[in-house]
């Protein structure tokens, strides 16, 4: 019997097969030590051997793995509990599942953090439908928060659990722009904030705002704003700014 099985005791078998429950245990090196059937189903895995000993970087796309890893650092390094985490998953047959999870440090008998425990509960399908309806207006806010991330449109659509076609239609209906155009608007607004209020170099601002390089940033900024970013910064413009056109 493994150490995890000893730790869970007789309850382990119940938790492993419990419907509507996800259970994950990880070590300090961020490796999976234990996963139950509910978790495997929610991420499209069939056997624990597919994931045990691996990390999120072995199992998920890089952009998603980074987010998970940051949460793991918060739990294990900062010794904080995250109890409001919600995540939407697509499972077999294209069904949607919403999970509410608690992520907490796992400690040994001396109180030292040895890893983390994740416990997730499946949200009622009727409530999920209401959540999905309520979250549509928040997609624009999501784009504003993540505009500077270097995600492709396909990755954005996957993160939002939508097809790219639906994502395009949603943004055109609600903003009059394509997702790409709205993201560029947000990036330029962020770039203007940094140009006005920081001493960061143009190459750093370009990287921070999701542009390929300084040359690309300068070209796009000049096309949309009317002058290069260095010249715009030098003019010390004041007052409210928009991403398009001069104020």
UniProtKB/TrEMBL annotation:
Annotated spans, Disordered: 225-247
GO MF: DNA-binding transcription factor activity; sequence-specific DNA binding
Keyword vocabulary terms for this entry: DNA-binding, Transcription, Transcription regulation
InterPro entries with a match to the protein in the record: AraC_XylS_family_regulators, Homeodomain-like_sf, HTH_AraC, HTH_AraC-typ_CS, PAS-like_dom_sf, PAS_4, Tscrpt_reg_AraC-type_HTH
Superkingdom in the source lineage: Bacteria
Domain HTH araC/xylS-type span(s) in chain numbering: 137-235
UniProt xrefs under SUPFAM superfamilies: Homeodomain-like (SSF46689), PYP-like sensor domain (PAS domain) (SSF55785)
Protein name as catalogued: Helix-turn-helix domain-containing protein
